[in-house]
Every structure is written in structure tokens, then in C-alpha cells.
Design a protein that fits this description.
Length: 630
């Protein structure tokens, strides 16, 4: 069997610039919307600056003169300035509403595209990827990482740009009002920027680690939810809680390290800002007393100083969310960049018709005859080979890892309509052979031929369409019984589905379900017995009507009575097909044309039932009970 242990993926250095560029490439068809958003963000950010710029004029031109005596013209001027200031602020609010609405649309469309690409890439990944990566880590890309990107697009980027515009606008106004006081502010800002730089760098590293730990926690929880029956049966509750505490503690430490620096930013900045405000107030008072600045200028400048600290604080706060989102985006793009399943095959499976001389030609309609369409690149000709189900393995060597051989010099052949059985201890390599025939993994040494054609020349989808498998671990999807059986042949009619169920002897129990074939199955068919689920899997294989059938411990989960019940149906299912059987129960392989006994990846005995008994070797020991399969 494949190594199912989760391996820690190789760490890749985060390229922030590349990640941002790739993320924004999903918005290239929303440029107009982004331009409108940018304009609204700019005006919204400047509205505070423009509004505050009225303060100096209001104080110096209206309030101070009015304090010396009533003048109607000054009252009118004061009201005009106040209304204009209110109008600027109202326009800023309208712009903020518009860019939030538009950016929400941009974010949802972008995430939609990312999820589509992510799922499409996942469907192209080889089985090896899922054997070596925890499901929780993959699920985390769809949940936590996309949520972080959503927060980035709807809040963080907008806040960052708006705050940046405010900082630039305020700074320019301060320079215009007083370059002396601006020098003091710049000195304070340099100190604040240094603090943000140091704390941001440290928190960013831990935010990446936090996202990884979240994936591990999700994976463990998902695994425990699926295996709750096993947990209860073996009283594993305390041990599972202990193990969860360990990985949860790793997440806590990563989250604490990430947020401890992030949360320290605001208090530090707030205190530095207060000190800076006090210093500027004292310096401004001195300049006002000596007549270098007007009172209105000092008051307005202090307002600018206060408003400058707010967007800088927002920038530092959003940097944490941005770091988290970029870490999530990096994980998503790493999955998208995984090497897809390679398929260089060019031989395809087609419907065919046969003329009076037995020559095959391609047909656009279902004829009941399948053929391999084999284009020959050398001379441009195309030949058709009838699909018969002959399987040949020639000197096959294979290992899931380079230094661990699972199969060693395996050679065997299965003629059309033969039944070939594989028996042997767990880990002997039985299931690996079927994985190779399906091209879940490619053979590095040796050859596998299907009807005389090297399977590497056959397109994987066409190869797998010509095979049907009944696995030990049956998986049923959320949907009706009818839909689950039809999964074997998507264009099967209701009658074909029911005929397949009858063939597998599943029809009887299906009709006793609450809604018969329309009964909805959920949670992997948890409302069915293991035997009933296996019968549905056999019916699914039957409706596919393939030339080659692979039964991987197909009856291991079925009790003796049920096994006897479906034996006749299984015989009908196997009739006229090449069948490869992996079984622990020797009763299911007695009538095989050939039985392969595997041990440590090698075929140590081969022959039919009677021949193997005469050899009095491993098979004989298994049959007589002298040795048990493990």
C-alpha cells in the first residue's frame, strides 16, 4: 500500500512581490471597478485632510475677530466655512460607502476564481499528493487561507491605501503650515517606523507558522471526526485529547508569538504618539507666543499631528492581517504550483463497429464494442484494436520511496476473461499492482501492457474508463442511491442502474429503504451497514460494464451469509471479463484461473488452486490453516 503518513511539505521561501502580483492577476478583468475604488479611496482619505484645513481659517479669520466684536459678515463667513467643511466630510462618507460596496464585489469574484482554480488543480493532482499530504492542510486552503485573503481585499488593502493617502496629505499640509514643527514630527515618525519594522518582521514570520499550525489542527480534527467509531471502540478519548493538546499547544505558541508582537505595536505607538503630541504642542506654543505662528495654525497643526498618528496606527495594525493573508495566499499558490498528474498518452478508447471481415472502425454511437484507437506518429496511420482485457506485467519494479522497493521483478499475464487472484500478507504488494495498472503511479522499471499496448501510451482517463474497481474501503457520496450507483456510468438510464443493482443482489435491500432508489445517503452512507455499502460499490462497478474488473478485498466487509447471497451475482458480473482479485478469504479465489502468492513484493508461488495445493508451499499452509494472513 502507499505510504499514507502525512509528510511535512518542503518549505519554500515566501516571495511577497510574486504573491501579490499573482493575487492581483485575478482582478485584471475588474480594472474599471478598481479605478473607481481607487478614486473613492483617495478622496475619502483626503476628505479628512481637506476638512481639517478649514480649521486655521475658521479660527484666524472668524472666531478670533468675533471674540473682539460682533460682525454679521463674519458670522456668514463662519457658517459658509462650516457648511463647506461638513460637505467635504459627507462626500468622504459617500466615497467610503461606494468603495466598500465595490471592493466587496471585487473580493467575492476574486475568491470565486481562486477557489475554481484551486479545485481544478486539486482534481489534476496525482494520487501520490493525497497520500503524502494531510486532508486538513488541503482543506485549510479552502477555508482559513481564503478567509484571510477575503479580509485582505475587503479591509486591509483599502485601509492601507486610505491611511497612506491621509498620511501623505497630512504631511504636506504640515510642511505648508510649519516646517519647524514638521521636523519634530519627522523625527518622531522615524522612531515609530523603526518600531513597526522590527515588530512587523518578527510577527510576519510567526503568522506564516500560525497558518501552517492551523492546517495541522484542522487535519487532526477532521481525522478524529471520521474515526469517532474507532475512538469509542478502543476508548481512545483521553489519548486523542492528549495528542490534540500537543498540536493545539503548537498552534497557541505560534499564534501567541505572532500576536504578541502585533499587539505590542499599538500601545507602543500610542505612547510615542502622545509624547510627540506634547512636544509639538510645547514647541507650537512657543512659536505662537513669539509671533512666528498664528493660534489657528498651531491648533490646526496639532489636529494634523493627531490625525497623522491614527492612519499610521491603522497601517501597523493592517500589516498583521496582510502578513497573515499573504501567508495564506502563498499556501494556496504552492498547492496550485504542485506538479499535476502527467499524461503523455495518445491511445484513446472509442466506440467501434466491425465489418463483415472483422475490421474495426470508429463509431459516434454506443455499439457495445470498444476499441483502442492507436495513431502512429511515424506514418500517420490509425489502427483499431478491440478491447479484450489482456493484462501483462513484465519485470516490474516499483517503490513509493526511492530506497524502499515494494515490488521486485513482477511478471504475470492475464488472458481475456481470466480470473487472476493475488494472495499474501499485508504489505506484500497486492494493492500496489492494481495501483500501477490504473496508473495511479507510473512504473519506473519494467512494462505493463493492456491488450498488447504499453499503458503509458494510453490516456489515463481512457485507461481508467476501461477498468472498474471495487475497493475494500467503500466511499459513497452525498446523494441518492440511484446517483451513487450511476457514478460508475454517468449516462446510465434508471433501468441500467436497477439492472446493475439486481446483478449485485443489492436490489432487495434498496427497495426496503425509506425511499427506495431515491433514498438520500449522507455521511458516506452511515445509515447503511458495511455490507450494504459494499453491495452498492459492486453495483456501481456493474453499471460501468468494463472489460477489466479489479476486486480489492471487495467482499472482506461482507459477512458469510451476504457473501453467499451475492456469489451468483458476482459470477454474473465477472462473466466475460478479465478479473483481478485481491482477497484474504481463500474461498473467493478457489475458482481462479491462476493464483499469485506474494511475499515481500515478490511472486513466490503461482498456479491454480489444485496446483498450489500439490506444491505444499505457502498457499497450502494458508489453505490448511497452518499459516494465517496478517
Amino acid at each position: 500500500m502507499a505510504n499514507n503518513e502525512s509528510k511535512k511539505p518542503e518549505e519554500k521561501k515566501t516571495n511577497v512581490k510574486s504573491t501579490i502580483k499573482r493575487l492581483f492577476s485575478y482582478m485584471k478583468d475588474m480594472k474599471l471597478m478598481l479605478v473607481i475604488v481607487f478614486i473613492c479611496v483617495v478622496f475619502s482619505g483626503l476628505s479628512d485632510v481637506i476638512g481639517m484645513s478649514f480649521v486655521r481659517g475658521i479660527i484666524d479669520s472668524c472666531i478670533l475677530p468675533l471674540s473682539k466684536g460682533y460682525q454679521e459678515s463674519l458670522i456668514i463667513q463662519l457658517i459658509q466655512k462650516l457648511l463647506l467643511m461638513v460637505g467635504v466630510y459627507v462626500a468622504g462618507v459617500v466615497c467610503a460607502y461606494l468603495y466598500n460596496r465595490l471592493m466587496l464585489q471585487v473580493a467575492t469574484k476574486t475568491l470565486y476564481k481562486i477557489r475554481v482554480d484551486l479545485f481544478a488543480k486539486m482534481e489534476k493532482l496525482p494520487i501520490k499528493y493525497f497520500d503524502t499530504h494531510a486532508n486538513g492542510n488541503i482543506m485549510s486552503c479552502y477555508t482559513n487561507d481564503t478567509d484571510a485573503i477575503n479580509l485582505l481585499l475587503t479591509e486591509s488593502i483599502i485601509s492601507l491605501v486610505s491611511s497612506g493617502i491621509s498620511v501623505i496629505g497630512v504631511f504636506l499640509m504640515m510642511v505648508i503650515y510649519s516646517w519647524e514643527l514638521t521636523i519634530l514630527v519627522v523625527a518622531g515618525l522615524l522612531l515609530i517606523v523603526k518600531i513597526i519594522s522590527v515588530l512587523g518582521e518578527k510577527s510576519g514570520k510567526y503568522f506564516v507558522k500560525q497558518q501552517d499550525e492551523i492546517g495541522k489542527v484542522n487535519g487532526y480534527i477532521e481525522e478524529l471526526i471520521e474515526g469517532q467509531r474507532v475512538v469509542k471502540v478502543f476508548c481512545y478519548e483521553n489519548e486523542s485529547k492528549g495528542k490534540f493538546s500537543v498540536i493545539n499547544e503548537d498552534l497557541r505558541q505560534a499564534a501567541t508569538s505572532a500576536n504578541i508582537f502585533a499587539n505590542v505595536m499599538m500601545p507602543v505607538m500610542s505612547n510615542v504618539s502622545n509624547v510627540l503630541y506634547g512636544v509639538v504642542a510645547m514647541a507650537g506654543s512657543v512659536l505662537a507666543i513669539i509671533g512666528r505662528l498664528s493660534l489657528g495654525t498651531v491648533v490646526a497643526f496639532l489636529q494634523f499631528v493627531g490625525s497623522l498618528m491614527r492612519p499610521i496606527g491603522q497601517i501597523s495594525q493592517q500589516l498583521n492581517a496582510i502578513m497573515s493573508a499573504l501567508a495564506g495566499a502563498e499556501r494556496i499558490f504552492q498547492l496550485m504550483d504542485e506538479e499535476a498528474e502527467v499524461d503523455n498518452g495518445y491511445v484513446t478508447l472509442v466506440h467501434a463497429v466491425s465489418d463483415s471481415e472483422g475490421n474495426l472502425s470508429e463509431s459516434d454511437t454506443r455499439t457495445g464494442i470498444w476499441a483502442w484507437k492507436h495513431p502512429h506518429q511515424a506514418d500517420g496511420t490509425v489502427t483499431y484494436t478491440r478491447v479484450q482485457g489482456a493484462i501483462d506485467l513484465i519485470d516490474v519494479n516499483f517503490g513509493y520511496e526511492k530506497d524502499k522497493q515494494v515490488l521486485k521483478n513482477i511478471s504475470l499475464y492475464a488472458k481475456p476473461e481470466q480470473k487472476i487472484a493475488f494472495v499474501g500478507s499485508t504489505g506484500a504488494g497486492k494493492t500496489t499492482i492494481t495501483n500501477l495498472i490504473n496508473r495511479f503511479y507510473d512504473v519506473p522499471e519494467g512494462k505493463i501492457r493492456f491488450d498488447g499496448i504499453n499503458i503509458k501510451k494510453i490516456k489515463k482517463a481512457d485507461l481508467r474508463r476501461s477498468l472498474s474497481m471495487v475497493l475494500q474501503d467503500t466511499h459513497l457520496f452525498t446523494g441518492t442511491v440511484m446517483e451513487n450507483i450511476r457514478y460508475g456510468k454517468l449516462d446510465a438510464t434508471d433501468e441500467e442502474v436497477k439492472s446493475a443493482a439486481v446483478l449485485a443482489n443489492a436490489d432487495s435491500f434498496i427497495r426496503h429503504l425509506p425511499d427506495g432508489y431515491e433514498t438520500v445517503l449522507k455521511s458516506d452512507g452511515s445509515n447503511l451497514s458495511q455490507g450494504q455499502r459494499q453491495l452498492l460499490a459492486i453495483a456501481r462497478a456493474a453499471v460501468a460494464d468494463p472489460p477489466v474488473l479489479i476486486l480489492d478485498e471487495a467482499t472482506s466487509s461482507i459477512d458469510t451469509r451476504t457473501e453467499a447471497l451475492i456469489e451468483k451475482g458476482m459470477d454474473q458480473l465477472m462473466k466475460g471479463r478479465t478479473v483481478l482479485v485481491i482477497a484474504h478469504r481463500l474461498s473467493t479465489v478457489r475458482n481462479s484461473n491462476a493464483i499469485m502468492v506474494l511475499e515481500h513484493g515478490e511472486i513466490i508461488e503461482r498456479g491454480d488452486h489444485e496446483e498450489l495445493l500439490k506444491q505444499e508451499g505457502k498457499y497450502y499452509q494458508l489453505h490448511t490453516g497452518m499459516f494465517e494472513l496478517s
